[in-house]
Each structure stands twice: as C-alpha cells, then as structure tokens.
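User:
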Amino acid sequence: MSCVGTNILYHSLLYDIRMVNHNAHEFTYISSLHDSAKYFKKYFSNDASIIFDIGSRDGDDAVMLSELIGGIPICIEADPKSSKRILDKHKNVIVLNTAILDYDGTTEFTRLISDFDDVRGASSVGNAKIDPESDYFEAEIYGSTLRETISIPCSRMDSVLKDLRLQNSIIDFVKIDTEGYSWQVIESFGECLSNIRMLHVETEINAMHDRHVNNLNILERMENLGFTLINFYTEWGDDMQDHLYVNKKFIVDHKELESIADIIRKDPLATNRSFRSET
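Assistant: Predicted structure:
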C-alpha cells in the first residue's frame, strides 16, 4: 500500500540532501534509512503493512519509508507543536502525540525553539542537549536556540499497541530516534517486541542523562531478545550509532543473517558512512 503522492515523495527525498557549500564542500547525503529499506526488501519479500517512527519530528522519515517499503506510517512525536506540523505537512499518516518511555504517565519535556528542523529535532525528555562544539549547530548557521520546559503525556509502547489493537500484530519496521532514551523505548514494548521484524535504533556512546544506556549495552540486550545486528551507521556524528536489527524468528534460514556485532564489540567507537553518496 502506497500512502504518499509524488509531490510528498519528492519533498521527502530532498529531506536527505544536507547543507550545500558548507565549509566550501558540496555533497549530497543519502540517509541510512535508504540502506535500511534495501535490507528490508532483501529479507522480506512482501511489502510492509505497519511502520512506526518513534521520535518522528517532522514525519518525513516515516513517509519516505512508506514509499520505499510500503505500509501505513504511524508517527509518534512527543512535542505537541511538532505533532501538529506533521499533520499539517503530510496526509495519510497517523500521528500520536506522546513521549514513549518505560511507564505510562507524564514527564517533563524540553522544547528547543527554532526555525530549523534539525535543531527542533534535538528536543528531548528531560534536559535537551546540543553540543556547542558541533558544526551542525553552529550559532552563525542556526542562530541562538531558545528552550522551554513543558509537561507532556508519556506512554509505554505495549500500551500504545493495545490502544491501537495491534498488540498481536506483526510490526514490520520501527525507527527509534528519541535523543538518548532508546533503551526505555525498547523495554516499553514488553512482549510485543517479539512481533517486530526490523528496528532502526539510534544509540549513543556517551551518557546523555542519568538513565542513559549506551550502544554496547543496547546491542547485548537486543541479541538476548533474539535480534541480529546486520548493519550500523554513524549518520549524525562519531559518538552516535544507528543500529539496524532483524528479528531472527522471522528468518527461516539463520545462515542468511550476517551479524556485524563483533565490529562494535571490538571497537565501540567504530564508524560507518558507506551508505553516503558524495560528489
């Protein structure tokens, strides 16, 4: 099922083209999600039915994935204003305005107020962090960043799936980008995690808050839960790794799965930008 029109697809592909002429270097940047979609097609011959984008920001990734692998895109975004932007920007998407944590209730959320999507996307549960040394958030490019703290609802994913009557359904693809709270999101799925075919999970090497769990511990947890790490990407800096996991229970011949976990075990700081196309 294709949920997007040509005009939206065109915009979504443009979303993956980063700065031009930044530091006098022109390049075209291809998202790691394009590579993840190729892996989905490799291991699963049928189109996706359900896609979750947790920490969706603007909905672009969910819409792009829907076009690449099929499926209904369900965007989960903690920031109420960003949730509204998704609804205003994209048709045929489901948007849920809640943070995903390992409990149901409320939480404090720090909104970064900016005209730039990439700055707003660093808004986070707790105290949002922007690295002042990062070229990506240079003041002369993005201007000063204001912030406000608000109280928002938070939910476990197994509660969300139950509300949507999807607790027993196969979830084809889940992307998690929650600024340091991937562990809490994974744990919040409970037994429903075993229904997920593929996960694209942002992990970090350095602690971002007092409940943070790093890339190595997430890798160990995912393997214990029956998932195989088939690729990883350093898309947003060398201290962040996006992990791509496949659920072994959906693969008939496990010999088809080539784990690259040992690369990260041997070198937790390993990088991979092979998915990029530069000119």
